[in-house]
Amino acid sequence: MPTDLSELLGRARAGGRNRIAVAAAGDMHVLEAVRAAAEAGIAEAVLVGAKDGILAAAREIRMDPGGWEIIDIPDPAEACRKAVALVREGRAEILMKGLVSTALLMKAVLDKEGGLRTGALLSHAGIFQSPHYGKLFAVTDAAMNVAPDFEEKVGILTNAVGMFHRLGVEKPKVAVTAAVETVNPKMEATVHGAMLAQMNRRGQIGGCVVDGPLALDNAVSREAAAHKGIVSEVAGDADIILVPDIESGNMLYKALNFLGGALSAGVILGARAPIVLTSRADSEASKLHSIALAAAIGGKP
Ligand code: COD
């Protein structure tokens, strides 16, 4: 497992050059990210969208569009379908969102005929490098599944564990978080945590060690766990923090980035190819690391 997000660049490079299909690429932040990825030697991009918008955005960032393949499709929904089709046809290994809503891109991804479904749940995972934690860790799902039910949490967990396997961690430690570390039937997240942990103990969920429910402090701090008398392989040393829902996850994600001095990378898992959804608020480094993460885990077969 890399210990630093910048190591993802090396992993991505070692896997060979990847092609990114960018849906609605007329956005200077997205173009900056794909240019950085190309300069770092990890990916090239096919830019799908309104050609005049793409050229205008390229001019804004002084990017020479000469070396890039541009597919001129002004309608955003159609551009999403085309970018998805490029991945389906094997002409790109990563899908990336440009200047289009997540919902519109996901509609194309989830399309029963032309989309990128695999039968697995699609979920988001973010990887963080925090100055207060000794290793990279993931938060999931902070961006896709709004209020996951129990089965969906199994899917979210399975996707994140698969990502860690691809990053070289054989048995990642999963903390299923809630507000408290004891089961309270009135708090669904605590019940889900106990159920997931028991399924793991009984071998129904493999390839990882799961404990739950754990409050966030018990998940990431050995002292906090010891204080509560929690004896657990996961407590204080979690690789994956499974959050109760999109609200708690998104707030944890943003608290880490904006208040906690963390760096992050994020990707959607569970589709035929990794999907990069960067937002304007993401730093340049975070966008590049997200592309690197996608290339390192999924990218080229
Ligand atoms: N994985 C696999 N299939 C799915 C998933 C999923 N996560 N979600 C929906 N589907 C399938 C359904 O089974 C169904 O067949 C079809 O897709 C449509 O399902 P709906 O109608 O429930 O899906 P939508 O279009 O209403 O919602 C999908 C979104 C991804 C748009 C939705 O989950 C969403 O809005 N998520 C939050 C995105 C967001 O705003 N993130 C903010 C931070 S970036």
Fold blueprint:
Layout: H1 7-14, E1 18-23, H2 28-39, E2 43-49, H3 51-60, E3 69-72, H4 76-88, E4 94-97, H5 102-110, E5 123-129, E6 137-140, H6 150-166, E7 173-178, H7 188-201, E8 209-215, H8 216-220, H9 222-227, E9 240-242, H10 246-259, E10 263-269, E11 275-276, H11 284-297
Parallel strand pairs: 1-2, 1-4, 2-3, 4-11, 6-9, 7-8, 7-9
Antiparallel strand pairs: 5-6, 5-10
Helix pairs in contact: 1-11, 2-11, 4-5
Dephospho coenzyme A (COD) binds at residues 102-103, 106-107, 110, 121-122, 143-146, 277.
Number of strands: 11
Number of helices: 11
Major β-sheet profile: 6 strands, mixed
Q: End-to-end span in angstroms? A: 19 Å
CATH architecture of the largest domain: 3-Layer(aba) Sandwich
Query: Could you estimate the helical fraction of the residues in percent?
Result: 40-55%
Q: What's the domain count?
A: 2
Sheet-strand content, in percent, reads 15-25%
What is the CATH homologous superfamily assignment of the largest domain?
A: Isopropylmalate Dehydrogenase
Low-confidence stretches: none
